[in-house]
Amino acid sequence: MQLTDKELEIVEILEKDSRTSNEDLAAMTSLTVSETEEVLKKLEDQKIIVRYTSIVDWSKISGHEGVTAMIDVKVTPKRGVGFDEIAKRIYRFKEVKSVYLMSGAYDLSVIIEGQSMNEVARFVSQKLSTLDSVISTTTHFILKKYKHDGTIFEPDEEDKRIVVSP
Q1: 32 falls in which pLDDT band (50, 70, 90)?
Q2: pLDDT at residue number 160
Q3: Burial level of 145, CB count in 10 A (0-12/13-18/19+)?
Q4: Pick the residue with more confidence: 65 or 26?
Q5: Mean pLDDT over residues 103-120, rounded?
Q6: Of all helices (H) and strands (E), which one includes residue 39?
Q7: Phi, psi angle pair for 99, to nearest 5°
Q8: 156: helix, coil or strand?
Q9: Taking the domains of the chain in order of start, what are their residue ranges?
Q10: Separation between Cα atoms, residue 48 and residue 21, nearest integer Å
Q11: Which of 139, 135, 34, 51 is nearest to 95 (CA)?
Q12: Fold of the 5-45 domain
């Protein structure tokens, strides 16, 4: 679908900060609030804007450390449905946060979250690897997040450059 310049501008603003109010969106795009609301409804109805989310640094909250793993999955695609059927079976598991079709050495990239490495290991061995089309898996545990969806998790460091003025 082709978006107008204003629609695209709204999408880009909301992608950076989904908490931007309709009034602020209107001011930033030179639209009225009612025009902005119409654009948002259209974008939501057409599933261009799918969901409004927050990025949380869970490592700073005691008791919510958890484990995130990226799993490379090789599968045998089925005639007529390709990778879609197995991807659908995988993304229905509650542990699964994301599934991507990939190019390269493996077919699917699956991101899951669990409370412990053992919980992730049980998911891989008891649920994921037992699916008919799955040939092999390789699990990578995320040790630390530095940047996620464009957001840097490390605190801003002071600028140590010397100020030069005329």
Answers
A1: very high
A2: 66
A3: middle
A4: 26
A5: 94
A6: helix 33-45
A7: -140, 130
A8: coil
A9: 5-45, 58-145
A10: 18
A11: 139
A12: Arc Repressor Mutant, subunit A (1.10.10)
Radius of gyration of the chain from Cα atoms?
Answer: 21
Range 139-145 contact pairs with CB under 8 angstroms and sequence separation of 24 or more: 139/69, 139/70, 139/71, 139/72, 140/69, 140/70, 140/71, 140/72, 141/67, 141/68, 141/69, 141/117, 142/67, 142/68, 142/69, 142/70, 144/59, 145/57, 145/59
**58-145 — its CATH code?**
3.30.70.920
Total count of residues recorded for the chain: 166
Phi, psi (rounded to 5 degrees) for 155: -65, 150
The answer, as to whether pTM is greater than 0.85, is no
Instruction: Determine the Cα–Cα distance for residues 109 and 56; give it in Å rounded to an integer.
Output: 22
Question: Are the beta carbons of 26 and 10 closer than 8 angstroms?
Answer: no
